[in-house]
């Protein structure tokens, strides 16, 4: 996420007053500090700050080798229980594990984040991007930072991909899953059914709005669900460009926009580089085709309930007794994407076992 304040008031004095007030209300700096050249990391203890400083030092040359047009100047990182810039509660903080405040050249990082390295890589990318990267339209800088962070911190990439690709697919109509349930006793018939995972549409034309809505900015005032959708769409389109031509391909579009005197890269250039149409169907198909088997496992872990209900319904319709609900011993259950190639067995997925036993008790 990128935290840029909206300086929209035309009256400079009011802006100055606001800045002074906000300055006075800034969160208190964590007490322990580790300084390494232009980098300062503050945390609760020197050890905590030192760990983050070392991770940053390793990430910096890797980022410079991966993404063109990046450079790091002075940078501060504050480690906090929940990332926040100001001492008062603010909707800017939403639920992010990391924030970058460009005005302060400061990364705010959540303490104990599961994917600390990946979150740090995302925020570091925001901090390092130089012109003409600022010509990326809408939410696309978020996709760029996500894509870079997935390369720099592959350990956290799986969770990110599953979340972003499902966010994109939900924004474009949802995810149709096929369940194949086969009793393990010989001669028994396989039962097949489909389940649609969906969410209410956040935007009638989300796949176009991702080029105009800046969901990464604190001033965008979007709810969490809308942010999830735009971050997903942004990741999807950027990842497709990167897979086809590397980060260079996206950078060249920014350079071309600059050379032609355009403030932003036009959406059709990006769609062309990503080999996407501007229709929701094209984006949904792309998101679903991008799902690997592990991404599907991640999706099921996040949204087990509807699948579990359908499976429990079928289990209850069978005329054999399940010993203590142990369906995984009796049935072989395969789940796959209807539009896409990913598939996985549900038998060994613990979130599924838990959700089905809850559904059977209802
Ligand atoms: Zn971001």
Structure commentary:
The protein is of the alpha+beta class and 362 residues long. The protein folds into two domains: 119 residues, 2-Layer Sandwich (Zincin-like); 206 residues, no CATH class. Helix content is 49%, strand content 14%. The protein has 13 helices and nine strands. The strands form two sheets. It has a five-stranded mixed sheet with strand order 1-2-3-5-4, covered by helices on one side. Strands 7-6-8-9 form a four-stranded antiparallel sheet. A hairpin with a 4-residue loop joins β4 and β5. The longest helix is centred in the last third of the chain and has 36 residues. It is globular, with a radius of gyration of 23 Å. About 1% of the residues have low confidence. It binds zinc ion. Zinc ion (ZN) binds next to α3 and α4. Zinc ion binds next to α3 and α4.
Q: How does the SSE layout of this entry go?
A:
Blueprint: H1 12-24, E1 32-36, E2 39-43, H2 46-66, E3 75-80, E4 98-101, E5 106-110, H3 116-128, H4 140-152, H5 154-171, E6 175-183, E7 191-197, H6 206-209, H7 224-259, H8 267-274, H9 280-290, H10 293-302, H11 305-317, H12 327-330, E8 331-337, E9 343-345, H13 350-361
Parallel strand pairs: 2-3, 3-5
Antiparallel strand pairs: 1-2, 4-5, 6-7, 6-8, 8-9
The site of zinc ion (ZN) has 7 residues, from α3 and α4.
